[in-house]
Design a protein that fits this description.
Blueprint lengths: L2 H12 L5 H12 L4 H8 L3 H22 L1 H28 L4 H17 L3
Helix pairs in contact: 1-2, 1-4, 2-4, 3-4, 5-6
Length: 121
């Protein structure tokens, strides 16, 4: 995964654990695509101060993920939800192509609807 995307995702999960200034700097840099100079002007600090703040916040976010693993766990859940949905779709198709059972179809529709709500694109 590209580092920009990785940090952006980590910010979504752990951003509230950063200071407001750290969160703003990382958000401007990774999500808003501001340059270090633009962020420095926006926050009234030096360009080097912005760079240091970005690097410090990156390390903090990475450390949170290494210790807590929420992003990794979330991605694992998403992958498994997709597999569950695919299996339900396959069973539903087999049910339609054999002796159709309305109760099976209803339960499969419930599974598919629930997984669709939980899967994040």
């Amino acid at each position: 995964m590209p580092k920009n995307l990785e940090i952006s995702i980590l910010l979504d999960f752990y951003g509230q654990l950063l200071t407001e200034k750290q969160r703003d700097v990382v958000d401007y840099y990774y999500n808003e695509d501001f340059s270090l100079g633009e962020i420095a002007d926006q926050l009234g600090i030096s360009r080097q101060g912005v760079r240091d703040a970005v690097k410090r916040a990156e390390n903090i976010l990475i450390d949170f993920e290494e210790k807590l693993g929420f992003v990794k766990y979330f991605e694992k859940i998403q992958k498994n939800l997709i597999l569950i949905k695919q299996s339900a779709d396959n069973i539903q198709l087999m049910n339609k192509n054999s002796s159709f059972n309305m109760n099976i179809d209803k339960e499969l529709n419930n599974i598919i609807n629930i997984t669709n709500k939980l899967i994040i694109d």
